[in-house]
Structure formats: C-alpha cells, structure tokens
Amino acid sequence: MANPDAQGVTGAPFRLDVERGKIREFALATGAADAAYLQEEHPVVQPTFLTTTFFWQDEDSNPWSAVDLDQQRGLHAEQQYTFFGEPPRAGTRLTCQSRIGEIYTKVGRRGGEMTFAVMYTDFRDETGRLVAQAKLTGVETARPPDTEGTTQDGASA
C-alpha cells in the first residue's frame, strides 16, 4: 500500500549535463528526424529528453521509493513536462531536484480504490532559473490485475 507520509519527501539535488551526443542518440532512438536535434552544434533537447534524468538519480536524489507503491499493482500513469522558456540546449548544466507532491485516492470504474502519487522534478540552469519541471504520476490499484483467462506470458487464452 502506498505510504501517505511520503508526501513532501524531497531528494538531494543532482546534476544533469546536457550533452550534444546524448541529444542526438535520444533523437535517433525516438525516431526524430529534425535536423535541430541531429546536426546543430548546440541542439535544443526534445521535450521528453528530460526523462534521462533517471540515469543520473540515485537513492539519495530519487524520493520515489518513499511512496512505496506495490509493484504488482502499480503503474506509470502519466508524464508531463512544462518549460519556462526555450528547452535547454547542449552545453547546459542543469541542477535537478525531485520531490513527492500529492498522494490521493479515487474510486476506479471497476469499484476498486486507486492511489495516485505525484513526483515533481525541477530543472534549474547555472543561474538558478527554473527552466523546466517534470511531473510523474504513478498509480496503485486496490488489488492485483485479474489474470484469469490469460496465459503465463500474459496473452489472452
């Protein structure tokens, strides 16, 4: 069961150096063909590039474990990015910090209670200006998914 006391838990700040090669690799991995991501000397990041922060977080900087969602009943429900101006470009050093926001429940359509948890990650440039914010929403269902009628690999029987 999700831990409501996790609300407000904040991780340690961590650094993300926005690198030209990583922007290019991300663009190619996601099928982006825009020359702005692939050929410019200081390309701007794709909006979803900030997801790569998960490669830079560790247990001190990532407060998500405090939420304690049951992985058998949990899923990633939503990801949102807000930019406060142009997205960062290659050569930018970002200081990032994540915190657990709201934790709340709703009754699902099939009658089970669902617990939602929201984590915000702020991205600040070298001057301390807020450049972007990521909002991750996870959900835990009241009971495990119904597996009746499926095979071991999850396919329909």
From TrEMBL:
Residues 138-157 are annotated as: Disordered. Residues 8-133 form the FAS1-like dehydratase domain. This is FAS1-like dehydratase domain-containing protein. InterPro entries: FAS1-like_DH_region, HotDog_dom_sf. Pfam families: FAS1_DH_region. Residues 148-157 have a biased composition (Polar residues). It comes from the Bacteria.
